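Long-time lurker. I teach an intro course on protein structure, and each term I like to show students one example going from raw sequence to a predicted 3D structure in C-alpha cell notation. This year I'd like something fresh instead of my usual example. Would anyone be willing to generate the C-alpha cells for the chain below so I can use it in lecture? Attribution to the forum is fine with me.
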Amino acid sequence: MQQPSELEKYLFDLKGFIVIKNALSKKEVKDCNQIIDKIKNTPSNEWNGNVHSKGNIDQHGVELQQIYEAGKPFENLINHSSWINHMKHFVGGEGTFDYNHGPLFIDENFVNVRGPGKAIPVHSGAHEGTQRGHYRYQNGKFHCGQINILVALSKISKGDGGTVIIPGSHKSNLKHPQFDKYKLKKDGKYKTADSMIGSEEVYLNAGDAILFVDSLCHGSSRRVNKGERRVVIYRYGPSWGFFRNSYRPSKELLNRLSKTQRNIVMPHEEVLSPKNN
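-- Reply from a regular --
Happy to contribute to a lecture. Here you go:
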C-alpha cells in the first residue's frame, strides 16, 4: 500500500492536486479498456448489466456510471493500493466519529470516453463554498469533503482533451475573474479552461492518475486529435456522506466484494439495528 510522501502532502496542500505516476499497470489498463470496448456503445439512458450509460452528455462525451459494477478490474479500483491510503489521509477524520462506519465512502464512480470536439467547461472552486467539496487543514490533519482520483486509460497529451486545473483555487476566496465567461452556456457553447489565465493542463500516460480535491477549479481542453480520451473517476469522501446521484450498488456487487471494499461502497448498510428494521 503506497503512503503519501511528505512532498505529495506539501504539493496537495499548495496546489490542490498531485499526479501519481504508474498508478495502474499496463495489464490493469488493458483489462479496463477491454470492458469499456464491450459496453461503451450502450444506448443513452440504458443499462448494461448494472452499469448505466448516460450517453453523450452535452460536450462531455460518453459517461458510464456505476462502473465498479462492470467487473473485477473496476472492483479492484475501490481500494487500489496506489491511492487508497492517500484518500484516507486527505479525506481525513481518523480518530473521530467520521470513522464510525469506516474511513471512506465512494459517492460516484464512472468512465468517461471523449472523442474529437468534446470537452467539459470550467466548474468548482473554493469561492462556491460547497460542503461536499470543502478543503480544510487543521491541527496537523487534512479534512476534505471530496477527493477525486482520475485515472488515464489512454495517453493524454497535447490535443487529447486533458484535465485543466487552476492550481491553488481550492483555497481561493475569490472567483476567477474569467470564470463566468468559461461556464457552459445555454446554447452549449463555451471557451475551454485551458485558455484561462493561470490554468494548467495535466498530461498523463495511460495508467497515470491525478488526485485532486473537488473544490479545485477545473475543466478540460477540447479534444482535437483523432481517437478517444478514456478516463475512470472515483470520488471519495467521509463515510457519513451519501450518494450524489440516485444510483445504488447492487446486491450482487456487495456480495462479491471484500469486507473492506463493502465498507467503502456502502458503509450505511448496517447502520440500522435489527430492532429498527
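Some talking points for your students: The longest strand covers residues 105-114. The domain at 6-267 is CATH 2.60.120.620 (Jelly Rolls).
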